[in-house]
Amino acid sequence: MAKLAPPPPTNQDVSSRQFRDWFYSVFQFINQQSGTLGTMAYENANSVAITGGSIGGVGISGSTINNTPIGTTTPSTGAFTTNLTRNGYTVKPNCYIEAYDLSSSISITTTPTLLTPANTLSGATGITYNSSTGVFTFSQEGDYSLSLLVNALSTSGNRILYIYAEKNTGSGWTVNANSGKIYNLVSTQTTQIVYSNSVHRVAGEQTRYWIYANNTNVTLQTQTLPSVSGVYVPAIRIQYS
Prior knowledge:
- The structure is a single chain.
- The protein has two domains: 17-69, no CATH class; 85-240, Jelly Rolls.
- 7% of the residues lie in helices and 41% in strands.
- It is built from one helix and 22 strands.
- The chain has one helix at 17-34; strands at 54-55, 58-61, 64-65, 68-69, 85-86, 89-90, 97-101, 105-108, 113-114, 119-120, 127-130, 135-138, 142-154, 159-168, 173-175, 181-185, 190-201, 206-213, 218-221, 223-224, 232-233, 236-240.
- Strands 7, 8, 10, 13, 17, 19 and 22 form a seven-stranded antiparallel beta sheet that branches.
- The N and C termini lie far apart (83 Å).
């Protein structure tokens, strides 16, 4: 026997809750007969329960979305499919380079000369170095740690060593005004000069270093540690990380 539509309430005002519920029941009955609303039922908002199904192709079941647990207590390490950017620049993930020179002796003149270590340690990432020009180029923006070492020897007294830096952000080379360094050398004594600093580079920025002395008879020399083989104090060593 065919299912009948629900009868209207009797002795009720048409504006009453009973009439409103009846109208909704009739609407639901008509749609059930035509198959347009499936089996959705009328429920109070605070007691609605949805089991199974999908939303826009996303499968929700139990405590998972597309079979991935929701709210896991041990988060995994974050990963990005593209590089992060800030102010239009790519932020560096993990960059490193080391340029060094194991020459036995490098003469220092009284006029500024480019500091050009001859070799680059393998495995450099995100930074390139040109040993002909002494130029470091940074492919990504970020805060870098700099370590610069020179192993200096003066054969005369009252010799002073000077080092400063230049940078190029695309408009040509300019001197870094606060990059100057002055080192007093002791006659016939090797002085290992180490300078470290934290510096911010934008994407595509270049930097290079100049060195000179107040007089002649100053050289940069490579030395080896005593009682051990293959360990050096390079004449020049520049690291960025």
